[in-house]
Amino acid sequence: MAYPKKTDYHTQKNTMRSQAQAFLSLRKKLCLVLLCAIQIVCAQSFSLSGKISDYTTRKPIKAAQITLFAADGVSAKASIASNEDGKFALTSLPSDSYHLRITSVGYKPMTLTIAELNKDTDLGELLLKPDTVLLGEITVSANLQKEADRWIFYPSDAIKRQSTDAYDVLQRMALPDLQFDLMNRTLSSQKNGALQIRINGVPSNQSDLAALQPQDVIRVEYIDNPGIVYGDGVAAVLLVHTKRGYEGMQGGVQIANALTTKQGSAYAYFKLIGLKNQLSIKVNSHYKNVGGVFANSYKTFRYPSSDMTLNAQGDDRTYRLCGGSIELDYNRLLDERNSFFNVMANYTTSYRPENVSSSRVQHNDAPFFYEELLTKDKTHNVSLDLYLDKQFASNANLLANLTATYIGSDYHRAYSKAYHAAAQPAFTNAYDVDGQHKSIIGEIVFKQPFSNWLNLTIGTYNRLSNTHNTYVATNGTSPTSLFNFNNYDYIELSGTLGKLSYSVGGGYSFYRMKSDSLIAKYHFFRPFLTLSYSISKAFRLQYHLGINPVEPQLAMLSSFVQTRSEYELRQGNPHLKPYQAYINQLSLSFHKRETMLGLATYIQYSANPFTNNPPIYDAATNMFVYTQSNQHSFTHLQVRLYASQSLFSQAFKVSGWLTLNRYINNGLSFFTTYTDIIGGLSLTYDRPKWGIQGNFRSAITTMFNETKTRTAPNLQLSAYYNIRRLRFTLSVNNPFMTATTTVSTLNSKLISSTSHVFQKYNDNLVQLSLSYSFRKGKVRNLQKQMDNADNDAGVVK
């Protein structure tokens, strides 16, 4: 057997040991190289941060756009928006030279040069100065953007912090020609028409503003000359835009109750919000059980052979009312262009239990009789609303809306009188109404922009309704029915030519009404024109021409004869025809920084409007009959002034308006005119935790046909205090004022009357309310999924 030599063994062992040491040495070198490379890489990645604030107030600016450009100033390397505290941070930046540009609506842009970024850098507080600049034909000033056909308001962070919901945001933004009721939390337009509210494009109720938390409101578009797509009789439109990207839940509650009488309201909402889905439920209720409600009247009846004058003094009675609603709403985003589908189901009920009004009547200064009127009313309203807003890649927009409604009503009215002289028999009259109303409304609108100077809009609106009312009266049963169909097709061209913005269009309306056995058809052509010219950065001139048809209410067309008293009847007229109101409006507006001024002239001419006839005497029944007919014409002339001013960094706001009205009624057998001047003033002062508000409106007097009506002036004062998300508000209505009255005067050939309606509970009315809201969730960055800049696709334009 052969054995290896000992020297060979040791040689092999030494060789293996040398190879192992060399391998270990190589591993150490590789690790060292790798660690050095990592250090080099890490050393070349830095961050850039800072805080954006207002130069004047030093308050943080939210949603300022921070863009980092390469040294050439062209290639964008990173972009981010500042958060609620105005802070931003750009990370993982390689060592290099950059240009940093900061922009925000209403502020001068800021550009910083960063030479050789070689460490984590905090730029500290960067102050942006407010400015007014001209961008094409769009003027931007502070938090307001003026376009040719609308004002676009961007609520500041201060306004959002001082508000509990979108209603508060609107109230603090001093929007022109809007009147706010602080007690009832409602708003209306002073521009002789309805105010329409749309939230993210969906037509909404005013109560829906309470379900929008202020931090979600990104902008409000106020259209003071609405286009043809917004419907008939709409004087102004508020488009409220909310931001996307929040996921989680939101909720809130508002409770208000009077301390001086029995009335109050409650509102609550809850939302589940996903990235593409939103489900909400809204509930509200209200009640009223108030005293001090009565009417005094002085009336003269002129019979063929003699006159009879009655002086009625009302008894102080209680008025009761309660009601509420529940609404379910589901919204789903359909694509990256913010197309969405919305479903809303609503149930509303109103109940007035037996309310009795009574009065003691004198004739020739002697007691004559005692009368009572008892009414009871219950109404149920169920509706289902489907809404689609589809955006296309070509920027075309399709809107579709379908609404089905059912209204059931149960009404009871009983009138009785007992004479002071026992020899005269008592008089009674009563009837009940069982009403059912069903309707389906559908509308489709298609809008195609071709260029900046030309946009095409085509739409069709169709409404079908069927009403059945059964009147069960003392002298028998009277069933009535009304079938109504309305079709409206329209086209609109709009755009901008230099400093001139235009909207011109027209439509064709067709009405078909069947009342019992009577069938009527009507046709209307409806041209439309709006012109807006930017005279300068601050001044804008607008002209509006519209022709709107006005339909009679269903009750006016009923042939049912209502007995008002032993001496009076009221009878409907199935032959009433719709009429057209021709509207011309010219306005000049001025806006510079925190000052806004406006002057508007308004002329409405209505051809053959339906209104009350002078009362006639019916010899067969020995009673006076009130009827309605289409008259010759009605003209309303108006001159309106508006001004608002913000002071102390928008902490204090004052606005006021003054209006001159002239009414001309040209009837078939009467001619009346009246001129009135009314005005109002609003003050708001807000601090971080508390604030005060005040609204005043002078008395309003109107003149329609032969009836003049005066509504008493109104003063409202309000103060609030915030404890985090909880707000306490104390409001007073008509402090130190006399009894609230509405005075109506009729001067006709056969009847002269003056009535004073009192609502004493409204005087020195003190109300305490509290509101609370919560939100739990997170905000996601949706830049890669949808564009939520100033082109929210949920808005109808």
UniProtKB/TrEMBL annotation:
Name of the protein in question: Outer membrane protein beta-barrel domain-containing protein
Domain of life: Bacteria
InterPro entries: CarboxyPept-like_regulatory, OMP_b-brl_3
Residues annotated as domain Outer membrane protein beta-barrel: 401-772
Pfam family membership, one: CarboxypepD_reg
Species, as recorded: Hoylesella loescheii DSM 19665 = JCM 12249 = ATCC 15930
